Amino acid sequence: MSLFPQGKVWYYLFYLNGKRFRGSTKTENLKKAQCIYADATVRAEAGESLKPQRAPVIQGFVPRFLEWVDKAMLEPKTKADYKNGCRLILKSGLLGM
Questions:
Q1: Which residues contact 30 (CB under 8 A, 6 or more apart)?
Q2: How far, in Å, CA of 49 to CA of 30, rounded?
Q3: Which residues pair with 23 in a beta bridge?
Q4: Among 8, 17, 76, 94, which residue carries the largest CB count within 10 Å?
Q5: Is 90 in contact with 60 (CB distance < 8 Å)?
Q6: CB-based burial, 43-66: b 16+ in 10 Å, e otherwise
Q7: Helical packing angle, 58-71 and 76-91, nearest 10°
Q8: Would you say 10 and 33 are in contact if contact means Cβ atoms under 8 Å apart?
Q9: Which helix (H) or strand (E) holds 71?
């Protein structure tokens, strides 16, 4: 078992088919850390990525939000305000965040 403490938190490190997998269990409890480590090894053996998923960027979310605004039962002024807010966000530096 490749669990080791770093400060108060437990981390794991293991190799599978020559590939290194490491990460934080994000817990101080050794029993929970062992369960997280076991889950990580099973997921790695199944070929799943252990890296956390990135949050979607605003640019990809806006079309879905505008579709919801059109379908939602909102006041016309509220819909206009939401659409205007999206328009302003799409023109700002927040677009790729």
A1: 3, 10
A2: 23
A3: 12
A4: 94
A5: no
A6: ebeeeeeeeeeeeeebeeebeeee
A7: 170
A8: yes
A9: helix 58-71
pLDDT in tens, 41-80: 998 888 877 777 777 788 888 889 999 999 999 999 999 9
- The DSSP 8-state label assigned to residue 94 in this structure reads G
Which amino acid, 89? I
Residue at 35: amino acid letter = C
Domain boundaries, the chain: 3-45, 58-96
Q: One-letter amino acid identity for 32?
A: K
Q: How far apart, in whole angstroms, are the C-alpha atoms of residue 3 and residue 80?
A: 54
